[in-house]
Amino acid sequence: MKRVNLYLNDEILLDIDKEAKKQNISRSNLIRKILREYVKNRSEDRLSNRFDRLQTELKREIKKQAERISKLTVKAALYSIATRAELNSLLYDTADDKEEAERQIEAAWKFAVEQLKKDEWL
User: Fold this and answer.
1) What is the domain extent for residue 29?
2) Which of 52, 2, 49, 9 has the alpha carbon at shortest distance from 28?
3) Mean pLDDT score, 45-63
4) Is residue 4 part of a domain?
């Protein structure tokens, strides 16, 4: 243990002596205890502040990614609609009649849904 000299005014020293007597410990032990508690609290405060900052950053990143997913979902839906329209047009153009085209369209979309379920997309 290292020796440290402190200069304290009379009022603080009187308060320290009263508290040390109340706790039945020496003045030096009380000062060590106070300093230890102060350092511990400062460390906990820094950790708490860092945790709060990380939590704020994480919430911001989650919101950012949620917005990105929303945009991608809309984009995927638009591509799906466009693809379906193109497929319908192609099947109507190549089918012998309208009913045949509609049967092919229904079969194509049924197959697509089954594939998505198989690949665990739905």
Assistant:
1) 10-118
2) 2
3) 93
4) no
Percentage helix, strand, coil, to 5, in the chain?
A: 85, 0, 15
Dist CA 114 CA 92 (whole Å): 23
Cα–Cα separations (whole angstroms), residue 118 to 14, 30, 108, 115: 80, 70, 15, 5
Q: Is the pLDDT of residue 33 over 70?
A: yes
Q: Is the pTM of this model over 0.70?
A: no
Q: How many domains does the chain have?
A: 1
Contacts of 55 (CB under 8 A, 6+ apart): none
Residue 14 lies in a domain: yes
- DSSP, res 89: H
CA distance 81 to 75: 10
pLDDT of residue 121: 67
- The neighbour count for residue 71, using CB atoms within 10 Å, is 10
- Digit-coded pLDDT (tens) for 71-113: 999 998 999 889 888 888 888 888 888 898 888 888 988 988 8
